């Protein structure tokens, strides 16, 4: 779910490939806005936390498109920026969730279910669009792995919606939100760490040549 879908092996910049990438960027950006707004309106923290993944995937694919052919240094700085901004949003969601614990009123369960299913459909559509551009087993595997994680997050939101409807409690929503935002924080730090290593390796390489 979280900061997954890293694309490290973009080689071709064919027009058809760029179009596919733009379509996926549009789907993810629209779903970020839809799911974040639905989270605000319904008062669901899990929807807000799940929306983070769309923000992350939008940033990943947009950066991939922008930095095709750029230097290791530029790409590493782009990753640092991505890691930092995603960590900030994740902390904002955790903060809002903490405030919600004090408030205690349950979110609107039907919105969680409907938007959760939309998110699942959007992730499935992104996979279908990207899959034909993946060659090599490891790439196909990484698309499947991160889409599976995204789907688990979406199903988590739908299940939380069901539990909120059944129990009338805010807790299922809050627990799923905390899980999703924590996972996101974890991958934001992994992205930052990897970019730091890349910058260090690049500096050493430059010093030797
Ligand atoms: Zn994702």
Topology as H/E string? HHHHHH
CATH class: Mainly Alpha
Task: Specify the helix fraction band.
Answer: over 70%
Count of DSSP H/I helices:
6
Which oligomeric state applies?
single chain
Shape: globular
Listed once per kind, the bound small molecules are:
zinc ion
Tally the beta strands: 0
How would you characterize the largest beta sheet? none
Q: How would you describe this structure to a colleague?
A:
The protein is mostly helical and 209 residues long. It has helices at residues 15-42, 45-66, 72-103, 109-131, 137-167, 171-208. The longest helix has 38 residues, at 171-208. The chain starts with 14 loop residues before the first helix and ends with a helix. Bound molecules: zinc ion. Zinc ion is lined by residues 1, 4-5, 53, 57, 146, 150.
